[in-house]
Amino acid sequence: MKKIRLYGNWKMNMTRGETLAFFAEFEKSAKPLAAVVGKALEVAVFPPFTALWAAGEAIRAMEGPAPLLGAQNVHFEPKGAFTGEVSIPMVEECGATHVIIGHSERRHIFGESDGLIAQKTKACLAAGLTPVLCYGETLEERESGRAFEVMGRQLCSALEPLSADELGRIVYAYEPVWAIGTGKSATADEAQEVCAWSKELIAGLAKGGVDAAVLYGGSVKGANAKELLSMEAIDGALVGGASLKAESFLEIYTAYAEA
Q1: Catalytic residue set
Q2: What CATH class is the domain 4-258?
């Protein structure tokens, strides 16, 4: 089987106490997967900033298979007069190795531009962090036939200045905006089409030689994991609500693997 990346975006959920409870549950639930974690399965969790240090401590204390740690956002400057922002050195100090960049909620609720997302992507790469670059269309953009135009703009604005090596260090996450937190999900064929197109676009920008890891995000859970993750171009899932409980989170992989 192909390697699956299972990334959990907790969004604005989980206190410090809830975070510690999650990792205690994760340690038990992940034991049957000990042989595949880090090999056939790469797990990462993205807690809110207030729980990031506690999550890092819990991960470092684990004796069995442990997830990677990521942050949900960063500022592109290392420090400065940016009230309310968090820097790359701050998340690195907690043990984060990954950062979600350009999530649709950051784009559509907080108004992050393509240019700002490009700056964040480049800053993460320069620091040695793995950006998880999100992109996707709204329902109106899909229904009007502009989905690929929109996604092409979102990707190319961040990727065109980068080298082939840098393009290969990014994890890409296709997340149709209309399927996030709505209970709706793209069909397996719809997700496969976009993820395959994404791989071709990225390989073209890199002039070949890059086999990009592309995740699907949008109401992924155990019930639809088999169909989605079995698609050739889908390398894993960026999971929202189902990642808040270790058992339901890991069920996404086991549902695929057992099938």
Answers
A1: 103, 175
A2: alpha beta
